[in-house]
Amino acid sequence: MGPLIGEDGVARCPWAGGAGVMRDYHDEEWGRRVHGEAAYLERLTLEAFQSGLSWSTILNKRPAFREVFHGFDAGAIAAFDESDVERLMQEPRIVRNRMKIEAAVTNARASVALRDAEGLEAFVLGFAPDEPPAWADTTEMATTSVESVALSKGLKKRGFAFVGPTTMYALMEAIGIFDPHLVGCFRRGSD
User: Fold this and answer.
1) Which is an annotated Pfam family here (predicted)?
2) Catalytic: which of 37, 40, 42, 47?
């Protein structure tokens, strides 16, 4: 399926056709570059929490995630202990999954450790594809790539968790490492 024209007359990727949080995310954020450690850690964390759930669930809970994870300040999250994990397990405004919460803490600690090298942003950007995809139809779209597999392995070697190749591919799309919009979508090539 190619881009769909919404009730507003605009062609978009098919998953963003109707008004609401998904279309807003598509139009304003998805595929746009972000900058800074906190922005990268937020997207990495939210992609991990999204695994097995709908993205709209995560988007609706994002304000609470930002609050309880201190704006995704890696240093603040890295200082979390078991009592913080237990507190988050009781927080009904977020996804309460112990493995994902613990992975968020682990990844914050690994992000802090990366500061002594190139940092999280530069590390992730180092896996950008030489030949970005340009799909015209959803049947052409991939869920992993050579680069997402390599990014997954690289992050795991540096102590990150819950960073599988599919999750890393979704991260690469979300943060604009390449333009994920279908050819014909109004957002394709806009950033």
Assistant:
1) Adenine_glyco
2) 47
